[in-house]
Design brief:
The chain has about 220 residues and is α/β, with parallel strands linked by helices. The protein has helices at about 10-15, 30, 40-50, 65-75, 90-100, 110-120, 130-135, 140-155, 170-175, 185-195, 195-210, and strands at about 1-5, 25, 55, 80-85, 105-110, 125-130, 160, 180-185. The structure holds SN-glycerol-3-phosphate (G3P).
Length: about 220
């Protein structure tokens, strides 16, 4: 299971990289909009900070412009993945880029059929959004489970990124399904490392140790 950070914030990436848990980063225009105007610098820094794949989304609209921008993005760094939204008009562009060996992450996937169709194109990553389906009362995890079933049945090479992960259950169930990648907002990872029982346990061990009145453990 690969763990990506779903953020464009360099401070948060810097915090998590030394844990050796982070296999990549996913960004999108909304995440980038929180990081000031020097977008290129932000992206170049992120690509240097992590060894694994960094997804950067196109913002152009016309297919020919999307193609040009995808090529530009792909040249930013070796570990760049070009993120392209699922749109009918972009399918020829995506196919062309795949043939040119450019790593593509197709984003804004909300159905099993959408995922299946892009898997046929041989893209590196497919990103189904879990939380946003839950938002409209469609169980996101059920869609993800079916997508994993189809991937495995047909042996599609594309890696599935569980995206729009909002809570621990989303993360846990995505891992149990064998999703290739989970991309997690840093705030959710923080929660996992500050589990109330872990924190209480540490306090109890500390206070019991202090009661013993010894300074060194092994002397
Ligand atoms: O990776 C996609 C993710 O950033 C979307 O998450 O919470 O905005 O639906 P959310």
């Amino acid at each position: 299971m690969k763990l990506f950070l779903d953020t464009a914030n360099r401070d948060l990436i810097k915090k998590w990289v030394p844990t050796n848990l982070i296999d990549g980063v996913t960004t999108n225009p909304s995440l980038l909009s929180k990081e000031g105007k020097n977008i290129k610098d932000v992206l170049l820094d992120i690509c240097k900070m992590v060894k694994g794949d960094v997804s950067i989304e196109v913002v152009k609209k016309e297919p020919s412009d999307v193609y040009k921008q995808a090529k530009e993005i792909s040249k930013l760094a070796k570990n760049v993945v070009v993120k392209i939204p699922f749109q009918f008009e972009y399918l020829p562009v995506i196919s062309k880029l795949v043939k040119e060996n450019i790593k593509i992450n197709v984003t804004l996937i909300f159905s099993v059929i959408q995922a299946t169709l892009v898997a046929k194109l041989g893209v590196k990553y497919i990103s189904p959004f879990i939380g946003r389906l839950d938002d409209i009362d469609i169980p996101g995890l059920e869609q993800l489970e079916k997508i994993m079933l189809i991937k495995n049945n047909y042996n599609y090479k594309s890696e599935i990124i569980a995206a729009s992960i909002r809570n621990v259950m989303h993360m846990q169930e995505a891992i149990l399904m064998g999703t290739d990648v989970v991309t997690i907002p840093p705030s959710l990872l923080d929660k996992i490392f500050t589990h109330p029982l872990t924190m209480q346990g540490i306090e109890k061990f500390d206070s019991d140790w202090k009661k013993l009145g010894k300074k060194e453990l092994l002397k």
